[in-house]
Each structure stands twice: as structure tokens, then as C-alpha cells.
Amino acid sequence: MPHHFFVVRATVSDPAKRAAFDAWYANEHMPDAVKTFGAEKAWRFWSVTDPAIHQATYQFADKASLDRATSGEEMKRLVADFNRDWPGITRTREILVLAEEFGVA
User: Fold this and answer.
1) What's the burial of 56, exposed, middle or buried (CB within 10 Å: 0-12/13-18/19+)?
2) CA-CA 20 to 30 A from 98: which of 5, 16, 26, 60?
3) What is the predicted pLDDT for the residue at 23?
């Protein structure tokens, strides 16, 4: 089965908040989310093109495990924690399925 990914993009418009946001995400939110979701892996990115954009990507073995992770009360708690700690930071969420992986060994 192909891997499925849960992608969260946040826009941190105020440059003065980015370092604190980065530290919070790295030390609190992402470890909590990975554990809560039972994700296989996770990555975080800051956009070079638009420095306000932060992206977190969580990898799941299949759609069923992703659906379980993102549809329960724990997901609501993670969203509430984010909203409490970072009011006014807008986010989008997207679910992706791996269509192809290519690489040179």
C-alpha cells in the first residue's frame, strides 16, 4: 500500500514570532503530534520562497491509519492546543497519497 501524508501549512506572518513558533513546534507540538498520531515519520519545513510559510508533513503507512489519527478527539485536542498557543496563525490541511517514488540508489 502506498504511504499517505497529512500536511499542515501555517502562515506565520509576523517575522518576530517565527523563532518562538519554530521552537514550540520542534519541542512541543511535533513530538506530541507524532506520538498522538502514531505517524511513521514527520518532517518540518520553512519556505525559502516565502519565509512566512511553515509546513509539517506526517507519514502514515496507509489511509486507514491516517484516518484514525486525524478523526478523533486527540486531533481536536492538537488543534485546540495550537489555537491556544498561536491565535491568529492560519493553517491549511491536506491529505496526500504517494503516487510515485523515484531515486538513484
Assistant:
1) buried
2) 26
3) 98
Enter the C-alpha cell of residue 7.
500536511
Q: Show the domains of the chain with their CATH numbers.
A: 4-97 (3.30.70.100)
CA–CA gap between residue 77 and residue 68 (Å, rounded)? 14
Cell representation of residue 24: 514550540
Q: Is the pLDDT of residue 1 over 90?
A: no
Total-model pTM: 0.93
Q: How far apart are CA 50 and CA 32, in angstroms?
A: 26
Q: Largest alpha-carbon pair distance within the chain?
A: 44
